[in-house]
Design goal:
One of its GO terms (biological process) is riboflavin biosynthetic process. One of its GO terms (molecular function) is zinc ion binding. Belongs to the GTP cyclohydrolase II family. It is a single chain. The protein is an alpha/beta fold. The protein has one domain: GTP cyclohydrolase II (Rossmann fold). Helix content is about 35%, strand content about 25%. The chain contains 7 helices and 7 strands, in the order ββββααβαααβαβα. The protein has a 7-stranded mixed β-sheet, sandwiched between helices. A hairpin with a 2-residue loop joins β1 and β2. The longest helix is centred in the middle third of the chain and has 15 residues. It is globular. The structure holds guanosine-5'-triphosphate (GTP) and zinc ion. Zinc ion binds next to loops.
């Protein structure tokens, strides 16, 4: 699994002054990005969010999930500390792609939960891979993370790659009347750690 660093530039945002770094996944051709702030290579653990693409939640204000508020929370927290990174992976819909996610939403509208919908479409409940994180982190000289996630499987997947997750920072935000059952399924079927 290899990624190629392509380009970087300043990225002023409404939430703070980040830089954006583009990587090409040699195997899949996917274009991943990192938003970074501060000095990341000083060997102190880095506050990090590994965020999987969700066009509907991240860009279109969907209330079906909690992705948009989580991304915003992560960027705000990094900006407040002045140091950290978002690894934004282009694995939409837990890896099944945008159009299949819309198909899954249609099945959910008809009564399936998120896991059942993926399975009905012939996919794994969660087909995501995190392998590219390793060379991306190496590019920045980052070895140790404070990872913003509620998903213990994400912590395990990164640890299995040899990335040291020294702390898990909960990211419990974005609950609304439309995503209540979606979040409940994350807890009951996907092992997420949510207190509310
Ligand atoms: N297939 C499918 N994917 C979804 C659905 N809702 C959100 N997603 C995708 O799920 C991914 C986000 O995963 P989540 O399970 O919400 O969260 P996580 O990244 O595992 O865990 P956190 O780090 O705690 O946010 C994004 O790629 C979304 O596009 C859905 O109903 N079906
Ligand atoms: Zn989402």
């Amino acid at each position: 699994m290899e990624v190629k660093f392509i380009a970087e530039a300043e990225l002023p945002t409404a939430l703070g002054e980040f830089s954006i770094h583009g990587f090409e996944d040699i195997v899949t051709g996917k274009e991943h990005v990192v938003l970074a702030m501060g000095d990341l290579s000083d060997d102190q653990p880095v506050l990090c969010r590994v965020h999987s693409e969700c066009l509907t939640g991240d860009a279109l204000f969907s209330l079906r999930c909690d992705c948009g508020p989580q991304l915003q929370f992560a960027m705000e927290k990094i900006a407040a500390e002045g140091r950290g990174m978002i690894i934004y992976l282009r694995q939409e819909g837990r890896g099944i792609g945008l159009l299949n996610k819309i198909k899954a939403y249609a099945l959910q509208d008809a009564g399936a939960d998120t896991v059942e919908a993926n399975v009905k479409l012939g996919f794994e409940p969660d087909g995501r891979e995190y392998d590219v994180c390793k060379p991306i982190l190496e590019h920045f000289g980052v070895r140790r993370l404070r990872l913003m996630t509620n998903n213990p499987r994400k912590v395990d997947a990164l640890s299995d790659l040899g990335i040291e997750v020294v702390d898990r920072v909960p990211i419990e935000i974005g609950l609304n009347q439309h995503n209540e059952s979606y979040l409940a399924v994350k807890v009951s079927k996907m092992g997420h750690l949510l207190r509310n």
